[in-house]
Write a structure and sequence with these properties.
Length: 408
């Protein structure tokens, strides 16, 4: 199963140089399992040919409401009724204005007006010069489109084809793909503010060496993405990893456990859910050297002594908000054996309502995992799957538990 399996998306292109990105977007949506029906305005066809889009989508491309290929000559009805969503990418300033006014003088605008509002959502990826974007008319139109129920996917900033630099570029095709995937995920955490720790920590021995572990951060980043997709505000506190920040997530990078605790304590005051996926180092060198420790040729090895790191999860879970579950805390346990017994013991020791166990050596660095959820009611098994699929299921489980808690 890919993330858009079974979804039929009408991809509308309007006039703008960002049409070149729509070709890649079309492929990306299809790769995720969607079927894509391309509709282009006359202006869009000045920037990219219908032939390109036809080859990529493997379907005829439509541009005119007078196209005689539709047996009933009602393309605007046929195309809008079969769509799970209409995505306009790129959406020009002019096309936004047309949508606001309800114009219907070309196939794409006609189709947007004719779509059943309750069944076919409209997603808009604006693309224009920065002055056009900043113009009060465009800003007004954008606000009105949102009020009318459309989803504005946002814009990028940076160098523009016109030579200027600023806001108004179309988002990259991968960003739009992820936004479309997120759009279809169930919104189970709307109104929640989720704080997540992820990755390993790095405990310095001296300025060039340190102690870390094999955690890749993938599970924590997948949790952040899944929580965001579910509609939560998400803050991610990440140890040293080289992973891209999921769309719409605010990220704070830290190195050591002590740094991680400091950022968590700052951010946790406004959170409603805390998920600790980080593999925090249990110990750190007692006295990190200010200068590189040199070998002197005598064969003598440095003496290292350690102190225990603060247990971030236990500190947060045992705070008053954690104890009253105004802050719902979720811990992870990476074990090598006796997963169930260790996970149950760890849940009680840390004082968290939900503890998620996994076998560390079988998952560190991998793209998949298997989970065991332990809470007061019992044990739930989650069979091996991709970390993102598991993260989505786990977010659904967390949301169910929070709803149950709120009903009490
Ligand atoms: O005790 P252990 O490291 O096995 O506990 C794992 C859980 O506790 C994970 O959720 C991890 O993120 C969290 N933890 C923490 N701070 C530590 C150690 C673990 O937040 N110093």
């Amino acid at each position: 199963m890919t993330d858009l399996t079974g979804k039929h998306i009408v991809l509308g292109l309007t006039g703008g140089i960002a049409c070149y990105k729509a070709a890649e977007l079309c492929r990306a949506l299809i790769k995720e399992g969607a079927t894509v029906q391309v509709v282009m305005t006359e202006a869009a066809a000045q920037f990219i040919t219908p032939v390109t889009m036809q080859a990529l989508s493997n379907r005829p491309v439509y541009g005119s409401q007078w196209d005689v290929r539709a047996p009933n000559n009602m393309l605007h009805i046929n195309l809008s009724r079969e769509a799970d969503a209409i995505l306009i990418a790129p959406c020009s300033a002019d096309f936004m204005a047309k949508l606001v006014q309800g114009h219907a003088d070309d196939l794409l605008s006609l189709m947007c007006l004719a779509r059943p509002l309750d069944k076919v959502p409209l997603l808009i990826a604006p693309a224009m010069n920065r002055e056009m974007w900043a113009h009060p008319a465009t800003q007004r139109n954008m606000a009105q489109l949102a009020l009318d129920g459309s989803t504005i996917l946002g814009i990028g900033r940076g160098d523009q084809a016109c030579g200027e630099t600023g806001d108004g570029r179309m988002l990259a095709s991968a960003e739009l793909r992820d936004d479309v995937i997120a759009f279809f995920q169930p919104k189970t955490l709307v109104g929640e503010r989720v704080l997540i720790t992820a990755g390993p920590t790095y405990e310095a021995i001296d300025p060039v060496r340190g102690i870390t572990n094999l955690s890749s951060g993938k599970m924590g980043f997948a949790m952040a993405r899944a929580a965001r997709e579910a509609g939560a505000e998400v803050t991610l506190v990440a140890g040293p990893v080289s992973l891209a920040t999921p769309r719409g997530v605010s990220r704070f990078d830290v190195k050591s456990a002590v740094d991680m605790l400091q950022v968590v304590q700052e951010k946790v005051t406004t959170a409603t859910i805390f998920i600790a996926t980080a593999a925090v180092a249990d110990w750190r060198p007692a006295n990190a050297a200010d200068q590189k420790i040199k070998k002197d040729g005598s064969g003598k090895t440095p003496e290292l002594s350690f102190v225990e790191n603060p247990d971030i999860l236990a500190i947060v879970a045992q705070s008053p908000r954690g104890q009253h579950q105004a802050l719902y805390c979720v811990g992870f346990a990476a074990e090598s054996h006796d997963l169930l017994a260790n996970a149950q013991a760890k849940r009680l020791r840390k004082g968290v309502p939900l503890l998620v166990g996994n076998i560390g050596p079988a998952t560190f660095g991998q793209d998949d995992n298997a989970l065991l959820l332990v809470d007061a009611l019992g044990v739930t098994d989650m069979a091996r799957d991709s970390k993102l699929s598991l993260a989505r299921k786990l977010i659904a489980e967390i949301s169910t538990r929070i709803k149950m808690k709120n009903q009490k």
